[in-house]
UniProtKB/TrEMBL annotation:
This is DUF2024 family protein. Pfam families: DUF2024. Gene3D superfamilies: NE1680-like.
Length: 86
């Protein structure tokens, strides 16, 4: 499966930026990408954060490994936590 990767930076209360990638099927709308990011943030206790192009931008496309494909088929997206996500 070919996926689009969205590079995302969200400020946290501790004056650091949470950095993660949102991976979705290549035909996914930007609105859906933002909704998936908001769902992930809610799971991390960051509620009512509005993602925009300021925080979340298309980065590149790549082939996804099988495990990533399976999660995208189930949930619609896959998150790669990069920095300050916990």
């Amino acid at each position: 499966m070919k996926v689009s990767v969205y590079d995302t930076y969200v400020p946290k209360a501790t004056n650091v930026n949470m950095h993660f990638d949102i991976l979705v099927e290549d035909h996914t709308s930007v609105e859906d990408v933002y909704a998936y990011g908001k769902e992930y943030l809610a799971q991390k206790g960051i509620l009512n954060f509005q993602l925009t192009t300021k925080e979340c931008n298309f980065c590149h496309m790549e082939r996804a490994p099988e495990a990533v494909e399976q999660e995208i088929r189930q949930k619609g997206y896959y998150i790669i936590e990069m920095e300050h996500c916990n």
